[in-house]
Amino acid sequence: MKIAILSVSEKGKILSSKLKSLLSKDPTVIWIDAFHKNVKENIDNIFIDNVNNPVKYDAIIGIMATGILVRSIAKNIKNKKIDPAVLAIDDNGNFTISLLSGHLGRANDLTLKIAKLIDSQPVITTATDINNKIGIDSLSNKYYWDIINKNEILSFNKAILDEKTIKIFLNINKPHNINYKKDMLDFFKNNESNTLEIIDLKNKEMSIKSVDEKYILFKNNKNKDFNLNIINYNGIDFKKSDFDIFACFDKKYIFFKQRKLIVGIGARANIENEKVLNGIKIAMNNLNLPIERIDGIATAEIKSDEKGILETAKKLKIPLNIVSLDEIRDLNNPIISHSDFVREKFDIPGVAEPSSLIVAKKDSNSSKLIHRKMAIDGVTVAVAVSK
Questions:
Q1: How far apart are CA 383 and CA 285, in angstroms?
Q2: Are strands 59-63 and 296-300 parallel, antiparallel or unpaired?
Q3: Is 355 helix (H, G, I), strand (E, B) or coil?
Q4: How far apart are CA 123 and CA 125, in angstroms?
Q5: Where is the CobE/GbiG C-terminal domain (predicted)?
Q6: Quick one: pLDDT at residue 228?
Q7: How far is CA 111 from CA 76, 77, 156, in A?
Q8: Per-run averaged pLDDT (10 residues), the chain, 387 residues
Q9: Which domains does the chain have, with CATH numbers?
Q10: DSSP helix, strand, coil percent of the chain (3-state; round to 5)
Q11: Which residue in 269, 291, 292, 321 has the most C-beta neighbors within 10 A?
């Protein structure tokens, strides 16, 4: 997450500096800038979306009165699909308020994280959260799924609040192998969302009987068959290959595409596979994700024969992707960190971050870091997802 912190008073500036220092220690926070005074001008610049602004912020934290912050961002906000997370914190740090984009922008999660860091009271007002339920957009955010038809979010979240049964179908397509069902069930249980059910097509709970250009015919092993019209659901024109997961209730459907999640690995020579595996586990734990969510491991060609990396990929049954040094040299991303040692020896900025970004970007428009480089026991680990 890339974060901008704004303050207006001297007291707020002190809190801003403290918060920046605390968040900088979090490897899931990729970039932080702090701005003082000139709120409207700074916010306008933050919202500028052009090629000259390589750092597009995912979250804006205003240490100021909510009225000042709301009026300052008003002309720049568009809709929940694209707006950044916006949080407000009072000068004394008593309250951390999730103001905008609580689910899709991850403002609620960031609010809880910051409240814990500065010992403040988190303020979250979204209906699903205050009733300890999982919003359908919270589910997609947690596991890095893109929602194809975001216009259905409201109806699904209302159904969840009304405790209607939502069926979630996994493993529609190969090779996307969604095998973290247990983690999902634990997530549902911990959030009192017992009306969310998982139907795993891979495990034959329900099977695809036939497919044509307009329909998938699902064969339920307990009940009768049913058709899903995928060619024109509420004006969306797509095919079965365009989604990996869908959920439904009362003839309403919401479709998801799983984003590619890649773990980049660098390591010293002759690294033990236990240390590589431990580094991966720590990074995924930082992201609150199961190991099974990983779609691939990436490393540079200089590590293509590294036994510890090869053994780890084999043990986890996760594809290993080798990235050439030229691909890394051609990567133009101001966010990635640089290693003087690696630069001097191989003329590249690093291995873990660029490798993860390059592989995550393949077959998609772009990619982003969600866990910056972390070094532990001779291993460097970074995580990126497709966008």
A1: 12
A2: unpaired
A3: helix
A4: 7
A5: 261-384
A6: 54
A7: 21, 19, 24
A8: 96 98 98 92 78 74 96 90 94 98 96 98 96 94 93 95 90 70 90 83 57 52 52 54 81 89 97 98 98 97 97 96 96 88 91 98 92 97 97
A9: 2-125 (3.40.50.11220), 136-258 (no CATH), 261-386 (3.30.420.180)
A10: 35, 30, 35
A11: 321
Alpha-carbon separation of residue 382 from 259, 360, 387 (angstroms): 16, 12, 16
Interatomic CA distance for residues 326 and 301, integer angstroms: 10
Quick check: 382 and 372 in contact, CB under 8 A? yes
Q: Strand, helix or coil at 318?
A: coil
Question: Distance (Å, rounded) from C-alpha 28 to C-alpha 59?
Answer: 13
Angle between helices 107-118 and 10-23 (to 10 degrees): 100
Place of tokens 């497709």: 386
CB distance 36 to 9 below 8 Å: no
Q: How distant, in Å, are the alpha carbons of 85, 105, 163 from that of 64?
A: 16, 20, 38
- DSSP code at position 213: S
DSSP 201: G
Query: Collapsing DSSP states into helix, strand and coil, what is residue 162?
Result: coil
Four-residue CA torsion sign, 349, 3, 40, 15: negative
Question: Tens digits of per-residue pLDDT, 59-103?
Answer: 999 999 999 999 999 998 888 888 999 999 999 999 999 999 999
Token pair for residue 225?
A: 């068959």
State the distance between the two ends of the chain, measured CA to CA, in whole angstroms. 13
C-alpha to C-alpha distance for 367 and 278, rounded to whole angstroms: 25
Cα gap 271→204, rounded to integer Å: 40
CA atoms within 13 A on the CB side of 186: 8
Question: Which of 45, 33, 29 has its CA nearest to residue 6?
Answer: 33
Q: How far is CA 279 from CA 131, 142, 311, 337, in A?
A: 36, 21, 14, 18
> Which of 24, 139, 28, 146 has its CA nearest to residue 383?
28
255/20 Cα distance (integer angstroms): 37
Cα 295 versus chain centre, distance: 14
